[in-house]
């Protein structure tokens, strides 16, 4: 299975650096709409058999140009939503950001028991995303529009060839794209997927790493 994970386009609260994870969330900024419009061309040489989105508005808006270009009906799955900020929701102060990142980094480091303040553990986040991957595995080439923290965590935890100390993997701008290959029936373990490319810049501005 080939998996193309796309971060949604820019939102107003991305610009404000707020922990905005609640459903349904805001739409895209004008810049975000332009980023979404660039996705089809950025993936023009990639086969896509199915397209999945989360239940946050920004992923539907980001996926729309790609769906139209490929004549695909986006499949909405709650499991692809952003990692909930819980009691940190809509905060942007240094301590709140640090607390959110502490949980995500703990999970990437292997301690899935850590709980996001007022929200999920790493086990719960991983399980819901894995369930969507398993469902989608009936298709060979799948694109999923999800969220920055969710994609970073899942790819870092599942990827076999990622060194999180390498700062290139910290960058995943709006409409950044991570491509992986794996066998969902036997690779739902730490390091079970191979990261083919991590393109942190927005679609249309991508550089291979």
Notable characteristics:
209 residues; 34% helix; alpha/beta; 6 strands; globular
Oligomer: single chain
What is the arithmetic mean of pLDDT?
93
Largest sheet data:
6 strands, mixed
**Helical percentage:** 25-40%
The helix tally amounts to 6
Low-confidence stretches: none
Cα-based radius of gyration, to the nearest Å: 16 Å
The SSE order reads EHHEHEHHEHEE
DSSP E strands, number: 6
Beta-strand fraction estimate: 5-15%
Describe the structure.
With 209 residues, this protein is an alpha/beta fold. The chain has helices spanning 12-15, 30-42, 57-70, 94-108, 122-136, 148-158; strands at residues 2-7, 50-53, 75-76, 141-146, 177-181, 194-199. The longest helix has 15 residues, at 94-108. The model has no long low-confidence stretch (mean pLDDT 93).
């Amino acid at each position: 299975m080939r998996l193309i994970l796309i971060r949604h386009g820019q939102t107003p609260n991305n610009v404000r650096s707020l922990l905005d994870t609640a459903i349904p969330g805001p739409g895209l900024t004008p810049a975000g709409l332009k980023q979404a419009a660039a996705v089809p061309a950025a993936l023009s040489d990639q086969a896509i058999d199915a397209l999945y989105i989360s239940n946050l508005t920004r992923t539907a808006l980001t996926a729309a140009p790609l769906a139209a270009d490929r004549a695909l009906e986006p499949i909405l799955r709650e499991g692809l939503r952003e990692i909930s900020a819980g009691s940190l929701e809509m905060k942007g102060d240094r301590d709140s950001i640090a607390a959110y990142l502490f949980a995500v980094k703990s999970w990437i480091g292997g301690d899935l028991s850590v709980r996001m303040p007022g929200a999920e553990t790493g086990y719960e986040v991983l399980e819901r995303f894995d369930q969507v991957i398993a469902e989608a595995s009936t298709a060979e080439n799948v694109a999923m529009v999800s969220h920055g923290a969710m994609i970073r965590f899942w790819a870092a935890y599942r990827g076999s060839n990622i060194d999180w100390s390498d700062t290139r993997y910290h960058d995943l701008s709006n409409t950044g794209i991570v491509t992986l290959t794996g066998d969902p029936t036997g690779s739902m373990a730490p390091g079970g997927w191979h990261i083919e490319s991590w393109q942190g810049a927005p679609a249309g501005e991508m550089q291979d790493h």
